[in-house]
């Protein structure tokens, strides 16, 4: 059964997701023809989204590498990027168990009313597998690795429940949420930062969302032009010739145009299923709502996210140079920065200045955490028979540097089972509050 499930996941997101959407639509009572059309549209949208993300990665990757070489960075830990981290995560027996554990746990928690999130983004269960692999590498205890998987999956569903209303308000996606291991921690990080910004004279009054910037700066505030100009600057920092700078500038401008269009296509397919899910829940569970958990790729097309992310690429490389004690060489995940800050932008209501400042502070913490956790990542890679390609120490910014990784590994290192129990209790209390207590309070206030 486990091999069959792994085979299904290995079909890839562009195949797995439409199948899941079709099955989900049929369960909800959607007509077969409509469910099939919606599922196929989602698949096509995901293909388009991946093509644009690949365009961004293939453009930024070489430019980032050129900047790294130009700065003469000589750091001992290489950032291998999230694809390598995912391969490492699923490369062990413990990691492969994350998928069946995640699916079963999700169903049970929905039945119990402890989550509103139905997470169909099965591929990204690798985040839970990654945490479990690090905990196992730290303790050598298989059982505590399984427990870490369960607690992490519960936590990510809680994040999905909290994010649902924010996703609807900022991105305009009804009944959609992002229980995504890379993106959701940034949302939590941004909340206290936003509180702080609101109390700093000057910054608290700055309006820097894409619309305001465009109104103030005219053509230079247009998101496409902004992408072009940011690509121009990155190309100059990379030391490209005129042709290289021009091509990078046009490609980053193209990403700013194409990404929102691909997201819109994907949402066109998801909307009928989302509406059917809402009706299904209203009939059978009055007073409850259901969110469809999706990849945070849907959120990275926002102009505020893309503009902030492109600005953070050279900033991250600069931080790696100047931070004392940092050993991480940013590389593989520089093009993944949009996923790290996409939900931060939602907290800041699209304010690019706040997103860049908070994102820079976030990247400081990420660089230090990746450096700290690198020995465990390297150990997990060896256990999964991952080719280190001659590197003695590897890490990954997109998961290895997040505060959630620091929390799981740090508390387990200090308190073993007790540390994991603390996280589990906090998550369970949060689920009860968000899904049981808070709805009753809101119902009382609305009377």
UniProtKB/TrEMBL annotation:
Subcellular location: Cell membrane
Coiled-coil blocks: none
A single cellular component GO annotation: plasma membrane
Any single GO BP term: phosphoenolpyruvate-dependent sugar phosphotransferase system
Molecular function per GO: galactitol transmembrane transporter activity
Stored Pfam families: EIIC-GAT
Residues covered by the PTS EIIC type-2 domain: 5-441
Domain of life per record: Bacteria
InterPro entries (alphabetical): EIIC-GAT (IPR013853), PTS_EIIC_2 (IPR013014), PTS_sugar-sp_permease (IPR004703)
Protein's name according to its UniProt entry: PTS galactitol transporter subunit IIC
Species: Enterococcus ureasiticus
């Amino acid at each position: 059964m486990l091999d069959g499930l792994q085979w299904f996941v290995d079909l890839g997101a562009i195949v797995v997701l439409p199948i899941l959407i079709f099955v989900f639509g049929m369960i909800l009572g959607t007509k077969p023809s409509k469910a099939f059309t919606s599922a196929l549209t989602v698949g096509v949208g995901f293909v388009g989204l991946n093509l644009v993300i690949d365009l961004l990665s293939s453009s930024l990757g070489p430019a980032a590498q050129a900047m790294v070489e130009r700065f003469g960075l000589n750091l001992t830990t290489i950032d291998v990027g999230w694809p390598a981290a995912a391969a490492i995560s699923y490369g062990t027996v413990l990691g492969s168990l994350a998928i069946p554990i995640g699916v079963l746990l999700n169903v049970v928690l929905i039945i119990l009313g402890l989550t509103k999130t139905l997470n169909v983004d099965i591929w990204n269960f690798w985040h839970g597998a990654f945490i479990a692999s690090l905990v196992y590498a730290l303790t050598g205890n298989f059982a505590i690795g399984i427990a870490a998987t369960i607690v992490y999956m519960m936590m990510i569903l809680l994040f999905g429940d909290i994010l649902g209303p924010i996703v609807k308000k900022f991105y305009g996606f009804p009944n959609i949420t992002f229980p995504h291991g890379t993106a959701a921690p940034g949302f939590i990080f941004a909340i206290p930062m936003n509180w702080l910004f609101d109390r700093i004279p000057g910054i608290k009054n700055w309006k820097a969302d894409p619309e305001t910037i465009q109104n103030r700066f005219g053509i230079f505030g247009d998101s496409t032009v902004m992408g072009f100009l940011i690509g121009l600057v990155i190309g100059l920092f990379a030391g490209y010739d005129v042709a290289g700078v021009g091509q990078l500038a046009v490609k980053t401008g193209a990403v700013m145009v194409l990404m929102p269009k691909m997201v819109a296509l994907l949402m066109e397919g998801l909307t009928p299923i989302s509406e059917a899910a809402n009706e299904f829940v209203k009939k059978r569970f009055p007073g409850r709502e259901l969110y469809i958990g999706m990849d945070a790729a849907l959120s990275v097309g926002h102009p505020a996210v893309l503009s902030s992310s492109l600005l953070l690429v050279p900033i991250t490389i600069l931080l790696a140079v100047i931070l004392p004690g940092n050993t991480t060489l940013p590389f593989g995940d520089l093009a993944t920065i949009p996923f790290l800050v996409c939900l931060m932008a939602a907290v800041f209501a699209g304010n690019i200045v706040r997103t860049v400042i908070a994102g820079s502070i976030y990247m400081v913490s990420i660089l230090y955490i990746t450096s700290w956790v690198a020995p465990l990542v390297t150990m997990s890679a060896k256990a999964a028979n991952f080719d280190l390609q001659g590197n003695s120490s590897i890490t990954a910014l997109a998961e290895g540097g997040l505060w959630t990784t620091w929390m799981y590994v740090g508390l387990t290192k200090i308190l073993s089972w007790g540390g994991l129990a603390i996280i589990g209790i906090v998550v369970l209390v949060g689920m009860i509050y968000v899904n049981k207590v808070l709805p009753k309070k809101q119902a009382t206030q609305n009377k």
